[in-house]
Amino acid sequence: MVDHPTEAGIVLTPEEKRRQRQRNLAIAFALAGLCVIFWVVTIVKGAAILQRPM
Amino acid sequence: MSLVDDTASMNRSALVSQAEPRDFIALLKPRVMSLVVFTALTGIVIAPVGVHPVLAAISLLCIAVGAGASGALNMWYDADIDALMGRTATRPIPSGRVTPGEALAFGLVLSVLSVLVLGLVANWLAAGLLAFTIFFYAVVYTMWLKRWTPQNIVIGGAAGAFPPMIGWAAVTGSISLESFVLFLIIFIWTPPHFWALALIKSEDYARAGVPMLPVACGEAETRRQILLYTLVLAPVGMAPWFLGFAGLTYGLVAAAGGLGMIWLAIEIYRRREGAPARKASGRMFAFSILYLFALFAVLLVEQGVLARIL
User: Fold this and answer.
1) For residue A25, what are the domain limits?
2) Cα(A4)–Cα(B266) distance, rounded to whole angstroms?
3) Average pLDDT score over chain B
4) How far apart are alpha carbons B115 and B121 in whole angstroms?
5) Which of B157, B175, B193 finishes a domain?
6) What is the DSSP string of B68-102?
C-alpha cells in the first residue's frame, strides 16, 4: 500500500516560504521605485519630456 | 532509496528557489559597482554642462544598475569556473543559492531596464554607451576573451573604463577629449591592478583553466608587463593636469601616486620568490585601488564641488 501525499506538488518549508516572501517584497519595492523614478522625471522635465535629442 | 531521495532533492532545488534578496544583490558585484558609481559620478560632476541633480542621480543609478547587470551575466556564464576557484566558490550560483536561470533572467532584465531608463532620462548616446559596455563585459570579455587569451584583462578592461565616459555623455550628450582621458586612465590602470591580484591567485586561475598572464606566460613576464603598464600609467594619470582640465592639486596627487605605483611595480619586478613577492603583489593591488580612488576624488572635489562653490 503506497501513501499518497494529501497535497499535490511541492510543499514549501517555512524557510522557503520566508525567502519567497522576501523576494516578493524586493520585487515590489523595485517596481515601486521604478514608478517613482518615472513620476519624478516627468515632474522635473516638464514639457521637455517630449524632446528627445540624440 | 538514497538515489530516489537525491533525485528528489535535485528536482526540488531546481524547482524551488533558495535565493534571498541579498543573493541577487551579490550577483551585482557591489564592490565593483562602487568603483563604477564613483568614476561615473566624476564624469557627471566635472562635465561643463549643468544638469538637474535628480536627473543626474537617476542617470548614475542607471549606470550602476547596468554595471551590476553585466556582473550578474558574468556570474551566470562563469559559474563553472567560479566553482573551482577559492575566491569565487562562495558566489550565489556555485554555492547553489541562485540557479543559473535566475541569474540570467535577472541580468537580462536589469540590462534592458537600465539602458531604456537612461535613454529616456538622459539621452540615447549615453544609453548606447551603457548597452555597449554591458555587451562588451558580458559577451566580448566574459564569453570570448577571458578563456581564450592572456590579454583578456587588457582588452576587457575597457568595460570598466567606460563609466566616466557614460556619465559625461549623460550630461553633455557628447564624447569629448576629457572623457576619453578618464577612460584611458582606467583602461591602462586595469592590467597592473588585476595582474597584481593574478600573481597571488595564479593557482586558482590555473585550476580553472583561465589563461591569465601569470598562468599562460609565466610570473616573470607578468612582472615585466606590470612595470611597463605602470610606466605608461603614471604620465597618463597626469594627463588631466597637462591638458588643463585639472588643477595643481590634481597634478601633485597624480605625480605622487604615479611615483608610488612605479615604486611598487619595481618592487614586484625585484621580489620574485616567497612571502616578499606575495607581499609586494598585495601592496600593489591595494595601492592601485587607492591611487585610482585618489585621482577621481581630487578631480571630483577640485573640478566639481570647489569649481561650483568658488
Assistant:
1) 14-45
2) 72
3) 92
4) 10
5) B175
6) HHHHHHHHHHTHHHHTTSTTTTTSTTTTTSS-HHH
Closest CB to B54 among A19, A40, A52: A40
pLDDT of residue B186: 97
Distance, in angstroms, between B70 CA and closest chain A CA? Answer: 18
Give me the total of CB pairs closer than 8 Å, taking one residue from chain A and one from chain B.
Answer: 44
**Does residue B9 carry a pLDDT above 80?**
no
Are the C-beta atoms of B278 and B200 separated by less than 8 Å? yes
pLDDT band at B11 (very low <50, low <70, confident <90, very high): low
Which member of B18, B54, B173 has the closest CB to residue A53?
A: B173
B37-88 pLDDT, tens digit each: 999 999 999 998 888 999 999 999 999 999 999 999 999 999 999 999 988 9
What is the complex's ipTM, to 2 decimals? Answer: 0.80
Residue A53 forms part of a structural domain: no
C-alpha to C-alpha distance for B233 and B230, rounded to whole angstroms? 5
Chain B residues in contact with A37 (beta carbon < 8 A): 58, 61, 117, 121
- Look at residue B28 and give its three-state secondary structure: coil
